[in-house]
Specification:
Layout lengths: L1 E3 L3 E3 L13 E13 L2 E5 L4 H5 L7 H12 L9 E6 L36 H10 L4 E6 L32 H17 L6 E3 L17 H18 L4 E7 L2 H11 L9 H4 L2 E5 L14 E6 L21 H13 L5 E9 L6 E6 L2 E4 L1 H10 L7 E7 L7 E2 L5 E6 L7 E10 L5 E2 L3 E2 L4 E6 L3 E9 L1
Bound molecules: 2-acetamido-2-deoxy-beta-D-glucopyranose (6 copies).
Length: about 450
């Protein structure tokens, strides 16, 4: 990864380094411009925000420390996207996210019974802390409508929004009520001082699970996007709409034709969307989605691995730092994403589901965290990915090989080229640490990239 003035980023196509490395030349091509970047992030949904605020004993000092690691660019990763869950639960027990309308007002056209606790399962104070550290994007996403708006009368176990194509309920058509409800959530945040920048209404609609979940195919999602989009327009609310947080990239691709159907008003649902979102679980982001909209990978993690914080590379396991460096690289280079959002940022857990583990008063950042941080700290919103070509197609600045690699990197002949370049290294030995600056001569420099490492070359422009 090469970053110049934080305005462009070059991600050299990932592949593993041959065991015998030879001198390799990489040329940055500032003329080849690809997608622009919104950034990197995580979620603290399902009360994980409360883990940060001391639910399991984190001291105030370490609460600030973990917030800095996540959201401060100077002291940590400087994540730019926080994905909050819009709760659908009628209680706050266990890890449930409470709804702003926990109980039915009696029917879809009855005056709604909204309630706001300025807490939102810890996510509202977390949003304030993240914003104070510079986070620009708050993505509010609902896993489900409240149970009383759904065919199965339950926030869990899938079920559909009453009134959506092919689904009806004795209580009536709740489509407009659900749109009003999402708008009210955004208003509660705004009135309390936090602008929600992105709004979604689905999560993994393909899955039938015991927690909050709601079904939808592309046609049904398109129908609701238009209702929500028009409601936001009527209310004069400026927000970026997203869809559909499918369980995998392929599943999200399958929903897109439905979103692109042009209605009698001459518009498609895609016209109302800013970002098409998908997850990485059942299929990874390895190809561009068939949309002109920007795309974000909005959730992915190693759900099953026992917590492995200190391994950047051992054997390519699902929780290793190197694996996530490659996942990010592939998503940006091969799948054309503009955003990459890991599942949980910090939590008290015994698995790799989060990037930072909180046990009692201990804060343990994993190598997965340092991998995302080494992109996030330097590849800032509105950066543009530019091209890079290598004489050795098996070399990448993510060095996945077992030998050190010698590189010649050509920055291109512009009058803005740097005088020095600082390599920041993440590996088994380093947690995103700066090495000695390298002098640039005639627009190029020589560097050695350690085996099994991720290196960000950062220029200080002269
Ligand atoms: C990195 O190396 C490991 C083990 O040598 C291999 O399993 C993995 O597929 C490689 N990753 C890439 C992106 O080449
Ligand atoms: C609360 O929500 C649960 C889960 O959807 C549901 O089973 C239960 O009926 C709801 N309780 C009330 C009083 O609405
Ligand atoms: C989505 O489901 C509805 C209701 O069953 C159906 O009418 C529609 O054809 C489906 N759309 C797609 C793209 O499968
Ligand atoms: C990549 O995404 C951008 C939007 O960010 C889009 O304009 C472009 O067409 C996409 N490229 C490919 C190859 O899909
Ligand atoms: C918190 O983490 C510790 C250590 O991994 C574990 O023993 C404990 O069960 C966790 N608590 C919760 C509520 O997850
Ligand atoms: C904070 O976290 C660090 C790192 O896990 C730990 O060593 C320390 O004891 C914790 N508590 C305080 C008050 O610093």
């Amino acid at each position: 990864m090469l970053v110049k003035k934080a305005a462009v980023v070059s991600l050299i196509p990932a592949a593993s380094l041959a065991a015998t490395s030879s001198q390799t030349e990489i040329t940055i091509d500032l003329q080849s411009r690809y997608q622009s970047v919104d950034g990197f992030g995580c979620s603290q949904a399902f009360q994980r925000a409360e883990d940060i605020f001391g639910k399991y004993g984190l001291s105030p000092k370490n609460q600030s420390y973990v917030l800095d690691l996540m959201f401060s660019r100077e002291r940590g990763a400087g994540f730019t996207i926080l994905r909050n869950g819009i709760g659908s639960s009628n209680t706050s027990t266990s890890n449930l996210m409470n709804s702003i309308e926990p109980f039915s007002p009696g029917g879809p056209s009855k005056p709604p019974h909204y309630t706001w606790d300025f807490y939102n399962s810890g996510q509202f104070p977390l949003s304030l802390e993240a914003r104070a550290r510079g986070l620009p994007y708050i993505y509010a996403d609902a896993w489900s409508a409240p149970g009383y708006m759904k065919t199965n009368q339950d926030e869990n176990w899938n079920g559909y929004l009453c009134g959506i194509e092919g689904e009806s309920c004795p209580s009536g058509d709740w489509r407009q009520a659900y749109a009003n409800y999402l708008v009210q959530y955004v208003k509660f945040y705004a009135e309390s001082g936090v602008k929600v920048t992105h709004l979604g209404f689905l999560n993994e609609p393909q899955e039938v699970v015991s927690y909050a979940s709601m079904g939808s195919n592309g046609t049904q999602a398109a129908e609701f996007i238009k209702i929500l989009g028009q409601t936001l327009e009527r209310e004069g609310i400026d927000i970026e709409l997203t869809c559909c947080d499918s369980v995998g990239w392929k599943e999200q691709e399958d929903m897109i034709p439905g979103l692109q159907v042009i209605g009698s008003d001459g518009k498609s649902a895609e016209d109302y969307l800013s970002i098409v979102t998908g997850h990485g679980y059942s299929s990874a982001p390895t190809f561009p989605l068939s949309t002109k909209r920007r795309t974000w990978l909005t959730e992915w993690t190693d759900l099953s691995g026992a917590y492995t914080p200190y391994t950047f590379f051992a054997d390519g396991g699902a929780g290793e730092g190197m694996t996530w460096a490659n996942n990010v690289q592939t998503a940006f280079v091969n799948a054309n994403v503009s955003g990459f959002v890991y599942w949980i940022g910090a939590e008290n857990s015994t698995t790799n589901s989060g990037m930072i583990n909180l046990i009692d008063d201990k804060v343990i950042p994993s190598k997965r965290f340092w991998s995302l941080a080494s992109f996030s700290k330097f590849v800032r919103p509105n950066a543009v990915r530019v091209g890079a070509v290598s004489t050795n197609p098996s070399v990448t600045v993510i060095n996945n090989g077992s030998s050190d690699a010698s590189l010649t990197i050509n920055l291109g002949k512009t009058n803005r080229v740097a005088r020095t370049v600082t390599p920041w290294v993440t590996s088994n030995d380093y947690d995103l640490e700066p090495m000695s600056p390298i002098n640039v001569k005639g627009g190029s420099f020589l560097a050695t990239v350690p085996s099994r490492s991720l290196t960000s070359f950062v220029t200080e422009c002269g």
